Amino acid sequence: MVAPTSVASTTGLAADGRGLNALKLQAGHADPSARRAALAQASRQLESLFMRELLKSMRESSKQLNADSGGEGGLATDLFDQQMSVQMAGQPGGLASMIERELSRQVGASHAASVPASAGLAKSTFSFAGAAPAASSGGREDFVQQHRAAAERVAQASGIPAAFMLGQAGHETGWGKSAIRTADGGNSYNLFGIKATGGWDGKVAAVTTTEYVDGAPRKVVAKFRAYDSYEESFRDYARLITENPRYEKALAKVNSVQGWAAELQRAGYATDPDYASKLSRAIRSTMAVAGTSMGTQA
Question: For the whole model, what pTM was predicted?
């Protein structure tokens, strides 16, 4: 989705992350007053980006997986959300002051270590723009970088966007913190929670998991597929999605994050009634971490 830039030109706030680059450079300026001004402006922009993501999530939740929506938001809606996020940014009691304090701390540490301040600001930009938890240094950013190469190789062969696979793998494993283990404690390399059904004759890992029955969560013991590598897990996932007819409608939505997630849920990929909403947020946060939309719409 190409984000309009008119809001940024009239308010001085960025409609997307690109407008922060100049402020990152200004934040490293030796003059304290110039640095403070740049940090204040950057903080307002980051809050604006955060609020825009929050508005997207709220709209997504309110749609209740409307089959007619297809996941695409109109240009007018996108412009309205941009304007709203700009108007809310910098208000008393908002996030901007907290963000400014954190950025000031990062910039101060960067100067003490003779490291360009833009390095710390870049990381904060991705975290806030993706509405990711602040304490994610060993979380989703590391997870995405660890698996990005494998996901992109599988994406070229399958046509499934790498961001979609990375976001879903992150959601299923808690960004690597809740990996499925084999009986002896070994790594199953199963990133997508694919069960050992459908004639699977490979290795198996039996674990306790949460299933939703009539909308209520229940703990059950289930058998999951186990692999020899993470890339094998990506390839098996892509094979499942592209070869099983039940996911045909999902494959027709590879240009839409919400459309893809909604069709996976409708096809029965997971029993969680809120799966599509959670998956959409995970994919968008992956895009924020990777610094690219990867050719898809929200």
Answer: 0.54
3-state class of 200 per DSSP? coil
- What span, in angstroms and rounded, lies between the C-alpha atoms of 178 and 44? 35
232 against 290, higher pLDDT: 232
pLDDT(96) > 70? no
Q: Measuring CA to CA, which residue among 120, 156, 236 is closest to residue 148?
A: 156
**CA gap 276, 281 in Å, rounded:** 9
- How far from chain centre, in Å, is Cα 287? 6
Q: Is 190 exposed, middle or buried (0-12, 13-18, 19+ CB in 10 A)?
A: buried
Joined together, the tokens standing for residue 62 give 């309110």
SS3 116: coil
Q: Which residues are catalytic?
A: 211, 236
Q: Which CATH class is domain 140-290?
A: mainly alpha
Residue 184: pLDDT band with limits 50, 70, 90: confident
Which residues are 211's β-sheet partners? 218
* Alpha carbon distance 234, 215 (integer Å): 29
Residue in this structure with the two tokens 């289930």, named with its chain if needed: 222
Residue boundaries of the structural domains of the chain: 6-129, 140-290
First to last CA, the chain: 7
For the chain, the residue count is 298
Query: What is residue 116's predicted lDDT score, i.e. its pLDDT?
Result: 37
Give the start-end residues of each E strand in the chain.
203-213, 216-226
Exposure of 19 in the CB half-sphere (CA atoms within 13 A): 23
Contacts of 129 (CB under 8 A, 6+ apart): 17, 46, 49, 50, 53, 288
| 130 strand-pairing partners | none
